Amino acid sequence: MSFLEYAPAPESQAILNLRSEYGLFIDGEFREGHGTPFASISPATEKHLATIAHADAADVDAAVAAARRAYDRTWSRMSGADRGKYLFRIARLVQERSRELAVAESLDNGKPIKESRDVDVPLVAAWFFYYAGWADKLDHVGLGASPAPLGVAAQVIPWNFPLLMLAWKIAPALAAGNTVVLKPAETTSLTALLFAEIVQQADLPPGVVNIITGAGETGAALVGHGDVDKVAFTGSTSVGRAIARSVAGTNKKLTLELGGKAANIVFDDAPIDQAIEGIVNGIFFNQGHVCCAGSRLLVQESIHDEVIDRLKTRLSTLRLGDPLDKNTDIGAINSAEQLERIRELSDVGEAEGAERWTAACTIPENGFWYAPTIFTNVSTSHRIAREEIFGPVLSVLTFRTPAEAIAKANNTPYGLSAGIWTDKGSRILAVADKLRAGVVWANTFNRFDPSSPFGGYKESGYGREGGRHGIAAYLKTAAPALVAAAPARKTVTKGATK
Ligand code: NAD
């Protein structure tokens, strides 16, 4: 098969003015940290991008104290309409600086520019616009009249969607009247620090948003701080467990968005061309660094060979390389550690008897890369069917009946998301109803919208982000909490059907 040749189309970096060093953003200004600064590198080239301050316990104290002062003196006293104006202003500034933010995100994280430009950054703006609209309507969130903010929120986020996870955390917290201290992941701090500049540009009162950088111990000091009222964490299940332990017995409210091992179920009546695109989007979007990735393909046995053949053909057309090239489909793996984990689990997959197929592509000399890979002949007991690989690796299992598909899909400690591909609307509803997953996509995958709650069951965590559920997690009320007390519900999103 021959493919069209693509000339390189690199996005210019001229728009981005990175400083050589970044401090901590506390009380409305950048200041030095007391820990040893660390480097942020480009995962695609391993080149040094900037030196980042490291917050120690004293810096965490200062950030929480600034957030508390801002909460007491300004933010919690401001009307919802006025808070909303600040959030609208942030949303517009994100739009104005969208190209710069997209370039910074791709440089620092390794994700393709077409994803940061067309998915991450537009969704960041959408999240702030959406929650700006809620700020003066809190009486209608579903918690009864006059719900109140919680106070100071400690927020810790991962590296896979750095700016988007920041928006998911900060937008609802501020709209509800809380102040925040946020810690980005140590490999992807840059866009959070650019966001701190946006906070300054938007003229937010000092201390309403504080960004502190550092690794796990900084995060642990933040969530364990005695003057924090709410902890919101997105990251791995193991760290989520440690945080749940540290918060237990305190008055802090906690939401956890953790890992996943989603089943993407393809029935034999599915629109195959769309399903192939959905499978690719499900697991190869963002190099598979997606908590809700469709990392387990459950395909009906009668169409297994056809689906796998077509999938291999499609994967052979994906272009791996420079994240800043507008043609790139598969960017860099975020870090050497993550690459090692993907390699290790893939080797285990082969050792346990699954069959590995890897798309032929040229791997750049420097940086961290992993070619799109499929494992067939996978059984439910294999580690690659049970553990989150968090990379561009798909494990394929088969089923014969809907009941078997449901049993296999639910045979996981996780419960974040799932996908269903079929022509029958009745089957979508019947199967979605039985899947133990917080989000179920039908004839589509990896769709996000600020009005749609997102979150997990079981080891994928608890609490919802997005929608009014997302803002309810930052509010308290004397009346019974209608939204918060409701059992965890799943969101079913249907793609366009013929
Ligand atoms: P991670 O848990 O290692 O780190 C996440 C964040 O927690 C980082 O900022 C890290 O510095 C910090 N941290 C580490 N140890 C800590 C501690 N003891 N106390 C407080 N903070 C600590 O996860 P990761 O490798 O950055 O991200 C990948 C994981 O995140 C995957 O498992 C993925 O599924 C999950 N994730 C989940 C969602 C979701 O919405 N459910 C979204 C994105 C990523």
UniProtKB/TrEMBL annotation:
The keyword Lipid biosynthesis does not apply. Gene3D superfamilies: Aldehyde Dehydrogenase, Chain A, domain 1 (3.40.605.10), Aldehyde Dehydrogenase, Chain A, domain 2 (3.40.309.10). The keyword Oxidoreductase applies. Keywords: Oxidoreductase. One of its GO terms (molecular function) is oxidoreductase activity, acting on the aldehyde or oxo group of donors, NAD or NADP as acceptor. Residues 32-477 form the Aldehyde dehydrogenase domain. It comes from the Bacteria. The active site is at residue 257. Pfam families: Aldedh. Belongs to the aldehyde dehydrogenase family. This is Aldehyde dehydrogenase.
